[in-house]
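Just curious: can you write whichever protein you like plus the matching structure tokens?

***
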Amino acid sequence: MFGIAQDYFSPLLTNDYIDQIPLQIDPDQKADKTSHTIAVDAEWQSKLAISLKKSECKVDVSIPLTVQYFHRESGRKLVYIAHEYYLHLQQYALLSGIELIPWGNFDKGTLEDALERLGLENDRIRLLMFYSPKDLRYAFGKGRAEDFYLKARLTKKRGVTNRRGALSLGASNQISIHDLSGWAAKGLAQLATAVGVEMTDKHELDDYKWRMNEALVELPETFLRYAMGDTSALVQIFEKYVELVRKVQATLGIPEDEQFTEDTIPRTTGSIVAKTLGIFLRNQASNKKAYDFAIKKLGILEDGDETHKKQTHKKQCDSLNKLRHEVKTTADLERKDLQKDLKTIINSNSFDHIAINQTGVKYFVKQQDTSVYLSIVQGGRCNNELSTSWSLKGVALDIDEKSCYGSTLKEYTYPIGLPTVISQYDQEKRMTLREFMARYGSELVPNLWHIVVSGELPFRQDLVFSKVVGAKTIRSLNGEGYDKDDSVENRTDVSHIPGDFLLCQMEIYNGIINSDILEAIERVSSNSEKKAWFDLEVQAAAFYPKSDRIDSIDEWIDHVLQDKGERIVVGNRHGNNKDDRTRKWVGIPMMDFTGILVEERERAKDNGESAYQEALKLFINTTYGVIASPFFEIGNTILANNITARARLGAWMMNKALHTVQSITDGGAYSPLMVAYLKPDAKLPGFDKLADISKWKDTKNYKRTIASLEGLPPGITWDQWVLDVKAKFDTLQTDEERKAYEKELGEFLNTVTKNHIDKFWSLYGLKFPFNIEHKVQNISTAMAFFNKGDYAFRTVAHGDVFKSRGNKDFSQLKGPSAELKPHPIYELLRNVLDGKDTFPTSMEYNKQYLLSPTRWVQAQKSKDGYHHIADQHPGDEIIETYTARFNNTHIPILRLKDYNRRNDRKKINHAKPVKRFERYAEKGIASVVQAMNDDRLI
């Protein structure tokens, strides 16, 4: 009885009594044979137990209480309840219009019975859920759900989804899973808020999250309302989300019949945005059929080993070759004798690549020459900029590039057509950057080219990052092999190519040069530095030549229809291969896509259309990601690398002007007490001087100085200013007052800081490429920082704010989770804020996660690993114990060999843990940091 007093309940219901409860089939329900929407959710009582198969590993032994269904078409509410609770909730269910059904064994599943009660057979069922594989376990039944996972009929991407078609259940019903977590990164409640759906019951039982059985007993009416709340909300969110996406598509001028419907809307935000961009590009053509054929004509059909694939490939190759010779104008597309072949090609899903994605990640990873490196898309700048310190005192501010990717995208052009690629086979001699620019520089269009370079430098620099990965590793990738790790220490690039993304100061390995980076190199470098930059070797380059540009998409289509070129690949030698397809291209201004969305969002914000502006924001923020990703047809690594390079350049420029102590993607933290100044007669420092802000101050000629940020009223210091801000916040009574004051603070800080950045870089003739914005909520009297991305602010209005990617501070939670061990980084940061030089003594910490279907399947198929989770089920909560190891890969690295030596340090030696720099813990934080900077492990 789960520890609940027996007196609460009548005697347990027998199975005979359960069988007597009527199915309540609605006879009118049979009229609609098209499609039905049903939302499912489950509630359970969670407990944790120590796993016997792995010491210090805890697993979920939860016990189901209820499974809820809401059928949109009839409005019926079904709640399956553990039978011992049935009589306790029966009267409340009747009053709420809920059909309460006692159930003896949830592992046998409830959905099939629910479909029968709803009178559904031979129907298409859209099953809405929000990520929890347990919901599916209690819906389909444990055995059936796990069989679906093992046979890859159900799989986990962003959310759980079908694979290879709908799932059959009951009287020939076809079930399609629609997991709304694919549309949300931070939970159901936030998704509901974003689309304007009010969940009034969502937080009513927050104090019972880990003991829902007690809520059922003590607050039965509230429990039922809460339990059904998520299911009805899922339906509302689904409907509203589709409506908002259609509204965004209409804003982009996409015809109504091409906008997504409830049946066609993709399951993830990435797919929604990528497909919308694809539809938008197609609609720029006056003849869509001609556009469809043109991008396929320049495409590459997939090949396969299976007999049926070979037959399909030959048939489609024959059709494509015939059309290449027969179709020369748009009028030819209407010839009756060609319609069958046109339909075969235009509707084909058998193209590996088409004209708009032969600059994408998936295309380049397959190449057998050095163009394989063009698959890399480097991410945002993430760097510890002041490794000799770990705190800011007095005042600390948090700054970002405003609308970093959105503002960049709207200035760029999306190219349609095949790029020109410069590469060599692996053993062939590379040209230098100087030779490349001499040969091709006049053909380069700003923001539509990128070069991958490698080589050593005789000076320090911290602008161009490296990507440590070899051609063999990249070529080995397939659909499942892309790296999805998002840790700070080994941050992957956004194209999911495995390998470390790092800043190597005197050696560059697979670095990216584009128009923005090249301008900075030319304006900042000393003469000797510039020579060394241009001596770097070019691994590969891709660009859209200026002379090949066509003015309109219709002209480009006409040119492609007339093109006689073809691609033949026989082997890996230049003489055996042929590709003389046209390289003509047309540019579609992203102002017509992202620009329109940005302008519309400003209008929606001004008009208080909160849900609509959130949908617009989603599109704006996601567009860059889908262009960089290997998973979408519209991917383009040239465009993606230009976007990220500008973001990295902006963060680098902020760091040099403000002396930010950490850079994280598009922002950083700094103290207005210590920003960089150059005297008017100073010699402009080159890269070597700029590379280390701890050595910025010129103690010889006093031309490079550190001083307080200018812009405060006379007689006011920044120390006084931050205390005045704190005092002002203490007097504010309402949210409106607080928002008004935060806006005032933001405008002031943005103005004085932007003026300083612009003035600093005007000396070099460089323009800072962004507006800026401060996170006013993080105005602080102290800041602590460690590693590349761990930091904390002691804010003036919101208490202490911590950020540590991938780690949790369990001490701030409620319930059993509060007893878990937080990562020691939290104690370290808190000590720094308190002014203590005390390094944590315990390095143990817990990680808590839900067992995903993917990892569960791996556990079932593994012979040697995953023993501690092999007996668990998808959706079970797993808590594992780890030991933290503090390495120094975030300390400035000169050459790749230095990084490899640090990165390869062992954690375990002869089955015993090996201490890294935490071995200096007894001497305090200062000693640990000093040892890290000295690279001293003795």
